[in-house]
Design a protein that fits this description.
three-stranded mixed sheet, 7 strands, 2 domains, 19% strand, 6 helices, alpha+beta
């Protein structure tokens, strides 16, 4: 690891969290072949903290109404759109793709996908279980937290947030 390169820590429960080993891996701009930063490896302690945070977040998220969840998603959409150029620049550095594609497609379509799911949230449906006779049980809850290894990499930009986040947030 070079002392001149920025080191990105894992972001867990609203804060940056250092791993216990200091182990990192390089992130290379594929357009230039240059290492642009180092990312700390999520060791066992970081992974456990992330799992605990996801469980706590899921409990809080599940207690919200569909309208409250929709409003949060719509705020995320607004932030994505406000920071489009900043996020597109990070995408260009990380993937080596052309600026025009990252700026006009990647963040824009990601925001559109989250907005789509924000619109669906208030119409959330439940699964009905036949209990026999005229009795049914309907359970309404979000499907759960998502476990995903993180790297600032957007392999399929027009489906990024739709695939990774949208269904879990609905």
């Amino acid at each position: 690891m070079s002392a001149s390169l920025p080191v990105v820590q894992n972001f867990v429960h609203g804060r940056f969290l250092a791993n216990s080993t200091g182990e990192t891996f390089p992130v290379v701009n594929p357009a230039t072949g240059q290492v642009i930063y180092e990312v700390e490896v999520a060791d066992e302690s970081v992974q456990q903290a992330a799992i605990e945070s996801a469980r706590a977040g899921f409990a809080e998220w599940s207690a919200m109404t569909a309208i409250q969840r929709s409003r949060i998603l719509l705020r995320a959409v607004a932030l994505l759109r406000e920071r489009n150029d900043e996020l597109a620049a990070a995408e260009v550095r990380d993937t080596g793709k052309p600026w025009q594609e990252a700026e006009a497609v990647d963040v824009v379509t990601g925001a559109d996908a989250v907005e789509f799911f924000a619109g669906l949230a208030p119409s959330i449906e439940g699964n009905q279980q036949d209990l026999g006779g005229d009795f049914y049980y309907t359970r309404r809850e979000p499907p759960g937290h998502l476990r995903r290894h993180w790297r600032l990499e957007l392999p399929d930009p027009d489906r990024l947030l739709e695939i990774r986040a949208g269904p879990g947030l609905r």
